[in-house]
Design a protein that fits this description.
644 residues; alpha+beta; Phosphorylase Kinase, domain 1; Transferase(Phosphotransferase), domain 1; Trypsin Inhibitor V, Chain A; 6 domains; six-stranded antiparallel β-sheet; 14 helices; 32 strands; 30% helix; elongated; serine/threonine-protein kinase; transferase; Prot_kinase_dom; non-specific serine/threonine protein kinase
Length: 644
């Protein structure tokens, strides 16, 4: 049985901040992973562009464009983008993580959705798309795979990989982009797209949600593209009789081949969807009162109430009751008619009082609802603004009904010029109209660096708590600083830190592991063990003779680095002991010959003779050490002459 290859990204630390945990999805341009933001301690989705596309400037610019497009949008129905960057040759983008499924997954499980479910999902999709269109962004790749359904019920629009800034007409300039099943006719025929092209894709999605299938199928993509360009999308009710007429009309409006006949943007389609949602949910035709325009009055004596009743009955498919002629004396309606008239008058007066009471109560309810719902008595949630531009943050606060007071403060994590937070903090409930202080970061504060040289490592870390000290210290041998104490503090560039440094800036401690063990004069085996136990590597020079160091003992230990760190190399030179040489036999030779031969053998010579006698007049009688005795090369040999 073969095992699937392990993704090399799993476990990788991207840009020193994002720890990759698992893979979520893989697409044609990038792979999405679940990761942990170690700095903010939260789960994020990180999108990494495929390595083979890194050298393609077109793909790289499209990847960066996605981050910029999504980052410009601050909307509850659009996936938030937190960060974008480059780690070595890898481009990445950090987004909010939404545990859940996509609309495509939902359609696979349920085939088709009810009109109510379709209306709920499309309301959220169109709200997010309306924000994009308002910001001048065309998505260009709307499809069920890009609609995210979170476990907590949130619905968000993501994947702005093909998004472009909208001009009068946004041309692709190259092959068609997007998914062929959702391409608008103008994209197929002319390769141009604007907000109305997104509307067409929304209409195709609605058709698929209501019927469980796409309107056009074919064996080849070009067959599907041809149908988009030349055919009108059919009504969903032709495939699913349960689809109400209101949704039929929305789908046909959104998928009209002529872009001029479609809604101008997502906001216009959203407004119409919300108008017909009550009818979709309750089966009430919102245009019922308009049916009367096509129904002629039965008699000229009908009252307004009878007309409305008739209109409602016609709208409901019922038969209107015949109109009653007015009573007259001829019909025997004299006194009875008077009584009925008085009764009707009393009823009208009672009806006026009831109507007035209903209006009063309605006004009170509306006023109370306004006061606590959107008026001074209502509450608003402070939106999350940290890391956003000041303009985007102000827009969010204004949309929440809050007033803004600008201020600045330092922040070790947020770059200067971006929003570092608010007071009250995001997520808190405040009265609508309250003033919220918006803090713009001035970058990290510059702090004095405590002097920790010579301090124990644990004490140094405590004193440097305002900085980001690396978890692992650099170990180094030192003959001056005891083991476990700090030798130096390095900044992010590896240079000794100065007197001041940025708050939360990265620092690294250099900690002593003690001195390099002294091994000169020790047996070679013992010396090697001491050095390897200290974490050093041992190498050997060729052994040499040494008259003062016993054989197999270390004569010298040479360092290969300065300073020495664990793993550095020490080169040992081991003694072979003294270099022994036999004393030559010079007995019977004169002074000069004997001295020359002894010096050539490596000895120093000392003569035992009278100062006033010529040396050459004497013959050597003996030497000390004696001839043939082995002594160390370089030793002194005393020469004695005959007569002494």
């Amino acid at each position: 049985m073969t095992t699937a290859p392990v993704d090399p990204m799993i476990g990788r630390l991207i840009d020193g901040r994002y720890q990759v945990r698992s893979r979520i999805a893989r697409g044609g341009m990038a792979t999405v992973y679940l990761a942990t933001d170690l700095r903010l301690e939260r789960r994020v989705a990180i999108k990494v562009m495929h390595g083979h596309l890194a050298d393609d400037n077109t793909f790289k610019s499209r990847f960066v464009q996605e981050a910029r497009s999504a980052a410009r949008l601050a909307h509850p129905n659009v996936v938030n983008v937190f960060d974008q960057g480059q780690d070595a040759d890898m481009a990445y983008m950090v987004m909010e993580y939404l545990p859940g499924i996509t609309l495509r997954d939902l359609l696979k499980d349920y085939k088709k959705l009810t009109p109510e479910q379709t209306a709920d999902i499309m309301d959220a999709v169109l709200a997010g798309l309306a924000a994009a269109h308002k910001a001048g962004i065309v998505h260009r790749d709307l499809k069920p795979e890009n609609v995210l359904l979170a476990d907590d019920g949130r619905i968000k629009l993501g994947d702005f990989g093909l998004a472009r800034a909208a001009s009068a007409n946004t041309a692709t300039g190259q092959a068609l982009l997007g998914t062929i099943a959702y391409l608008s006719p103008e994209l197929v025929t002319r390769g141009v797209a604007d907000a109305r092209s997104d509307i067409y894709a929304v209409g195709i999605m609605m058709y698929e949600m209501l019927t469980g299938e796409q309107p056009y199928v074919g064996e080849a993509p070009m067959q599907i593209a041809y149908q988009h360009a030349n055919d009108q999308v059919p009504m969903p009710s032709s495939k699913n009789a349960a689809v109400p007429a209101e949704l039929d009309e929305l789908v046909l409006w959104a998928t009209t081949r002529d872009p001029e006949a479609r809604p101008r943007d997502a906001r216009e389609l959203l407004d119409r969807l919300r108008e017909v949602e009550p009818a979709i949910r309750h089966g009430v035709d919102p245009t019922a009162t308009m049916v009367l325009s096509s129904v002629p009055p039965r008699t000229t004596t009908q009252t307004a109430a009878t007309t409305v009743l008739t209109g409602a009955a016609v709208a409901a498919g019922a038969t209107a009751p015949p109109a009653s002629p007015p009573l007259s004396d001829a019909d025997g309606g004299g006194p009875d008619a008077t009584a009925l008239t008085q009764t009707a008058a009393r009823r009208r007066r009672r009806g006026y009082w009831i109507l007035a009471l209903v209006l009063l109560l309605t006004g009170l309810a509306a006023g109370t609802g306004w006061y606590f719902g959107s008026g001074p008595g209502s509450y608003a949630t402070v939106p999350e603004t940290r890391g956003q531009t000041p303009d985007a943050a102000r827009a969010l606060l204004v949309d929440a009904g809050l007033e803004i007071a600008d201020a600045e403060r330092s922040d070790p994590e947020i770059a200067a010029g971006s929003v570092s937070g608010t007071d009250p903090a995001d997520g808190e409930q405040v009265n609508r109209g309250s003033k919220v202080t918006l803090y713009v970061s001035t970058g990290p504060a510059i702090l004095p660096v405590p002097q920790v040289i010579g301090a124990a490592e644990a004490d140094a870390r405590t004193q440097l708590a305002d900085f980001s000290v690396a978890k692992d210290a650099v170990e180094q041998f030192s003959g001056d600083v005891e083991a476990g104490s700090v030798i130096a503090v390095l900044d992010a560039d590896g240079a000794p830190v100065g007197e001041t440094y940025a708050e939360r800036g990265k620092l690294t401690l250099v900690v002593s592991v003690g001195r390099v063990p002294p091994v000169e004069g020790r047996p070679a085996g013992e010396a090697e063990k001491l050095l390897t136990d200290a974490g050093l590597t041992v190498k050997y020079n060729d052994p040499v003779f040494d008259n003062d160091v016993p054989a197999d003992h270390v004569k010298t230990a040479d360092w290969t680095e300065d300073p020495m760190v664990p793993g550095s190399t020490v080169v040992l030179t081991v003694s072979k002991g003294p270099d022994l040489v036999a004393v030559p036999d010079v007995v019977g030779k004169n002074w000069s010959e004997a001295g020359t031969e002894l010096r050539d053998a490596g000895f120093t010579v000392e003569y035992n003779l009278l100062a006033d006698v010529a040396p050459n007049a004497f013959v050597v009688s003996k030497t000390d050490p004696a001839a043939g005795e082995s002594v160390a090369r370089g030793s002194k040999v005393t020469v004695n002459f005959a007569g002494f």
